[in-house]
């Protein structure tokens, strides 16, 4: 079977959740024989005057840059010593966060971004957006959010909900690839409300057939509900799932800013890794606005 995960990008900001994301990236890389990019975007500070945006504190910026370079070099050296068979690369950028990530996604042909998540968003994050949520919604690549509390790095039980029709074939293919690399079991969950019952049930049956054709072990169940995010989260707990693989499709995008859409619900109610599949053939491409200065990932020290 084709290796669908060949290059990983893991965001590094020298926090505990970042350390956990790196650990997850290394474990995935070992199973998929993938390259690991250790990525950091340097924080710049800016003031706005009549001449436009001007960077200040050049000495501070240079000092931070040296600290970051040294910290990433130390991390890379440590990882190479522990995992000599893996290919590591360090990339430091100095631009707006998502623009910088997308540059690397395209230039390095990244298959999956891995970033740490603190899990449930507080009110401030709901208003302004957490960095992990910003990466999820704006990156031109599939994204794996790894909760800080996650302490299992193999995917023995892989929950694959069938809730929307978009990119379902790609999601099944990726799920089977991950299951085979982990010698795991796919738990296929058809989940629908009354309005979409016929088309979702048909897609669910086709997904079962597709998995069976690929000789992949699986179990399956179908739920009828309008509260999909909560039910998926509950099912993942009852089923002892290690990862949930989801289409990047927000069926509740009509909801107001102050209400939880599907993404926020699933993040806030789930404490295992969430992989959001983005179709490479229809990348969003957020490359237009490069301000060059952004308060993004913190530096060490």
From TrEMBL:
Q: Which residues form the UspA domain?
A: 7-147
Its domain of life reads Bacteria
- Protein's name according to its UniProt entry: Universal stress protein
Q: Name one Pfam family in it.
A: Usp
Annotated source species: Chryseobacterium terrae
What the record says about family reads: Belongs to the universal stress protein A family.
Entries under Gene3D superfamilies matching the protein: HUPs
């Amino acid at each position: 079977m084709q290796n669908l995960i060949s290059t990983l990008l893991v965001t590094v900001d020298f926090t505990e959740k970042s350390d956990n994301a790196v650990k997850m990236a290394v474990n995935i890389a070992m199973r998929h024989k993938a390259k690991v990019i250790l990525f950091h975007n340097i924080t710049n500070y800016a003031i706005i005057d009549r001449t436009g945006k001007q960077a200040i504190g050049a000495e501070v910026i240079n000092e931070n840059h040296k600290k970051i370079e040294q910290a990433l070099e130390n991390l890379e050296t440590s990882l190479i010593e522990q995992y000599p068979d893996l290919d590591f690369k360090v990339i430091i950028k100095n631009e707006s966060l998502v623009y910088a990530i997308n540059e690397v996604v395209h230039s390095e042909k990244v298959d999956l971004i891995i970033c740490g998540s603190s899990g449930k968003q507080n009110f401030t994050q709901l208003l302004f957006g957490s960095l992990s949520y910003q990466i999820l919604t704006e990156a031109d690549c599939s994204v794996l959010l790894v909760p800080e509390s996650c302490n299992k790095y193999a995917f023995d039980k892989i929950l694959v909900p069938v809730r929307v029709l978009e990119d379902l074939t790609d999601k099944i293919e990726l799920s089977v690839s991950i299951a085979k690399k982990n010698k795991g079991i796919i738990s296929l969950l058809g989940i629908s409300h009354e309005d979409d019952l016929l088309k979702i049930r048909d897609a669910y049956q086709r997904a079962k057939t597709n998995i069976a054709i690929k000789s992949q072990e699986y179990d399956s169940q179908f739920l009828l509900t309008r509260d999909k995010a909560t039910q998926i989260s509950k099912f993942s707990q009852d089923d002892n799932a290690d990862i949930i693989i989801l289409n990047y499709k927000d069926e509740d995008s009509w909801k107001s800013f102050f209400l939880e859409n599907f993404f926020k619900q699933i993040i806030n109610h789930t404490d295992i890794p969430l992989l959001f599949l983005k179709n490479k053939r229809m990348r969003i491409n957020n490359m237009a606005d490069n301000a060059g200065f952004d308060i993004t990932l913190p530096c060490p020290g």
